[in-house]
């Protein structure tokens, strides 16, 4: 009997260390951004601020105790080469950048994390928006707390019809496309956006003279009249379903919150097998 209990405990620990796909228990939650609002403290415990030289430049999502998901272009340098892991740090449990930098986070919830490995998708190139997704391996595993938690990642078989659903994008990016008029957010912000049909999104871009092609590994989210969108430095951050499952990664677009030009996201469900393989060491 003792051996049986020991085996069950080991199995349970192994399961908890795996990626938080929706067929495993994961925390459900009620759900700088243009046209959004400030998030509540601890509302999005899966959020990560990626930093270089101490400054925020991209977002990310905790999906495992050792792995963070972000956009491929977030790990490219000015020479269009993949950066070294030691050039990037992360902050988890973050709410206010100012509080963290000035060491006035009274609850000490925000923690710096370091990376030991960067894994872009094998078909990603820094000068291309296709397969805009990457994994960052942590130097040490994260100890989860009520305010630092992994996101649930959809493991649905086959493409989910997300057309007309609403989702939430979040980040510390700019609040206006024109950086002379806006500012980069201090407190984590969020916004609700509407998911578009890919063909309708592509038609809307083409009607405005843009040549963007929307592949089945991407999705669009925003509004026909603009006004609400992700923006500069929100890249790499999560697009979450109303059930708070990770649907997309902030990837690209034309400007921020322009009418008829919704934001373009990497569709995470298309990369679940790759994510599993990387985490399980099968690549």
Which key terms come to mind for this protein?
283 residues; alpha+beta; Thrombin, subunit H; six-stranded antiparallel β-barrel; six-stranded antiparallel barrel; 4 helices; 13% helix; globular; disordered N terminus
Describe the structure.
The protein has helices spanning 2-16, 97-101, 198-207, 272-279, and strands spanning 37-38, 47-52, 55-64, 67-70, 89-92, 111-120, 134-138, 152-153, 166-171, 189-196, 218-222, 238-240, 245-252, 263-267. It is globular. The chain starts with a helix and ends with a helix. The longest helix is centred in the first third of the chain and has 15 residues, at 2-16. 13% of the residues lie in helices and 28% in strands. The relative contact order is 0.20. The chain is built from 4 helices and 14 strands. It folds into 2 domains: 44-150 and 271-280, Trypsin-like serine proteases (Thrombin, subunit H); 153-269, Beta Barrel (Thrombin, subunit H), CATH 2.40.10.10. It has 283 residues and is of the alpha+beta class.
């Amino acid at each position: 009997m003792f051996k049986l209990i020991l085996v069950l405990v080991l199995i349970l620990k192994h399961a908890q260390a795996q990626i938080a796909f929706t067929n495993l228990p994961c925390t459900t939650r009620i759900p700088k951004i243009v046209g959004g609002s400030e998030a509540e403290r601890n509302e999005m415990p899966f959020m990560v601020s990626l930093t270089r030289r101490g400054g925020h430049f991209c977002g990310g999502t905790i999906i495992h105790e050792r792995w963070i998901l972000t956009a491929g272009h977030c790990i490219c340098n000015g020479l269009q080469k993949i950066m070294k892991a030691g050039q990037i740090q992360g902050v988890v449990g973050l709410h206010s950048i100012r509080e963290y930098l000035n060491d006035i986070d009274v609850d000490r919830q925000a923690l710096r994390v370091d990376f030991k490995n960067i894994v872009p998708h094998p078909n990603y190139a820094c000068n291309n928006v296709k397969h805009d997704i990457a994994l960052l391996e942590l130097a040490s595993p994260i100890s989860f707390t009520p305010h630092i938690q992994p996101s649930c990642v959809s493991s649905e078989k086959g493409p989910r019809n997300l057309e007309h659903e609403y989702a939430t994008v979040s980040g510390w990016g700019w609040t206006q496309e024109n950086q002379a008029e806006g500012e980069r957010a201090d407190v984590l912000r969020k916004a609700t956006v509407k998911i578009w049909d890919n063909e309708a999104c592509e038609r809307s871009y083409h009607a405005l003279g843009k040549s963007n092609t929307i592949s089945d590994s991407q999705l669009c989210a925003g509004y026909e009249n603009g006004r609400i969108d992700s923006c500069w430095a929100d890249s790499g951050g999560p697009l979450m379903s109303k059930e708070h499952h990770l649907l997309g990664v902030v990837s690209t677009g034309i400007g921020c919150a322009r009418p008829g030009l919704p934001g373009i996201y990497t569709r995470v469900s298309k990369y679940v097998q790759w994510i599993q393989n990387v985490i399980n060491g099968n690549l």
